[in-house]
Amino acid sequence: MPHDPDQRARAAVLELARGEHRRHHPALVHVGEPSGRAVVLPADHGPDHALRADVLGALLWHRRDERPLVWLTRAGSLSWQDVDADWYAGWRAAGAEVGVASRFLVVTRHGWHDPTSGATRTWRRIRDRRRPR
User: Fold this and answer.
1) Cα–Cα distance between 124 and 63 in angstroms, integer?
2) What is the DSSP letter of 115?
3) Domains of the chain (ranges plus CATH)?
4) At how many degrees (to 10) do helices 49-62 and 82-98 cross?
5) Which residues, in sequence order, are CB contacts of 80 under 8 Å at separation 6+?
6) CA 16, CA 122: separation in Å to the nearest integer?
7) Residue 133 pLDDT more than 60?
8) Averaged pLDDT for residues 39-57
9) Whole-model pTM?
10) What is the DSSP secondary-structure string of 73-127?
């Protein structure tokens, strides 16, 4: 799995684009490694802030030696939505509590957004560069 943060983000987009073909699909929170070992949780109609923070804190602590990525996958554009804000706040609280370094991304089939840095990357049609043409 790539160690470069932008390659990991791209891998999360590619995984969603290859694996989810429905136009509307449920929002999910992933903790771990794109295209690798990750725990996946439903994000829509989720728990309250304290429960989101507790769940993410436990998952981050469990993977503390791996520098896990936390990413929210959902349908639509990368414009900021309530579900993004809810899980981002839970991630910030969890990270502060357990002290595990990680990165949070919002991922759609066409790109990713890092709300911490403001960085965004989009593709019209993402392709797997590892496969020969």
Assistant:
1) 33
2) T
3) 5-122 (3.40.140)
4) 50
5) 106, 115
6) 13
7) no
8) 88
9) 0.84
10) E-SS-SS--HHHHHHHHHHHHHHHHH----EEEEEETTEEE-TTT--EEE-SS--
